[in-house]
Design a protein that fits this description.
Blueprint: H1 5-15, E1 19-24, H2 32-44, E2 49-52, H3 62-70, E3 77-79, E4 93-99, H4 105-121, E5 125-133, H5 141-146, H6 156-168, E6 173-177, H7 188-197, E7 202-205, H8 211-220, E8 224-227, H9 229-234
Helix pairs in contact: 6-7
The structure holds SN-glycerol-1-phosphate.
């Protein structure tokens, strides 16, 4: 029997069972009854997972949102932390992100050293994740906050070499992110090239706004597509329906 979140994603990836996750940003997520209604709607949708976290929080609290969300959904809740203070042992898993597209040592190993003693003392599944920002549109919060340059969209070979290096370093998952609210999603050629080069599960997110874009990302090789901004603005899945 497979129990861990990453094992289930690995199995789905092998079987070609495509998934999508809703990302809740603790700064912008609804509260109280609205949160309850939204989580019920997410649970009744075809969403497979809920991600919680953000690259920059002004007032939101990841741990509190995880606790609130757990009361209203049985979907797996995975922390997508922008910093060690977003760690929560109430979630089902935590993506231990290394920003391998950048050269900011703090986000490659520094924050992990800070977080490791806390994580080791917690009973939470951590998933070593190669987090890659890709894109050349307007500056995203993720690129600004991380003070890193994304991989250029027109250089799939750079994305491939970066993902391969991460796999050789033992990472279990690759997350290609155009950045929250990005003008353009990750180019399909980049998804295809990375998919061909690696066999671990592949997450794709950033700037995905429609069912058509979800399907295209899946067809190109994404196993799990993440939707944040588009649903956060409307709290309604009908915005994803083709017009
Ligand atoms: C951001 O991949 C996620 O890290 C989701 O992006 O908010 O643009 O959907 P959006």
């Amino acid at each position: 029997m497979t129990n861990s979140w990453i094992e289930r994603l690995e199995v789905d990836s092998l079987l070609g069972l495509k998934r999508f996750a809703v990302l809740l940003d603790p700064d912008d997520a609804p509260k109280g009854r609205d949160l309850e209604k939204w989580l019920t709607e997410i649970s009744n949708s075809e969403a497979s997972d809920i991600l919680i976290g953000g690259s920059h929080l002004s007032h939101g609290n990841t741990s509190n949102l995880v606790i609130a969300a757990k009361k209203h959904t049985d979907l797996p809740i995975v922390v997508f932390p922008g910093s060690p203070d977003q760690i929560s042992d109430k979630a089902d898993a935590l993506l231990l992100l290394s920003l391998v597209s950048g050269r900011n040592a703090d986000l490659l190993i520094g924050r992990h050293v800070e977080a490791a003693p806390k994580l080791m003392a917690m009973n939470i599944e951590t998933v070593a994740t190669a987090y890659m920002l890709v894109g050349d549109g307007p500056l995203t919060t993720a690129a600004y906050i991380s003070q890193t340059l994304p991989i250029p969209s027109a250089k799939p070979e750079l994305a491939v070499a970066t993902a391969q290096a991460a796999i050789l370093l033992g990472m279990k998952l690759v997350y290609l992110d155009a950045g929250s609210g990005a003008g353009n999603p990750i180019p399909l050629e980049v998804i295809r090239a990375v998919r061909k080069a690696i066999s671990v599960p592949l997450i794709v997110g950033g700037g995905i706004n429609s069912n058509e874009e979800i399907e295209k990302a899946w067809e190109a090789g994404a196993d799990l597509v993440v939707l944040g901004t588009v649903l956060e603005k409307s709290l309604n899945f009908s915005v994803l329906k083709p017009s």
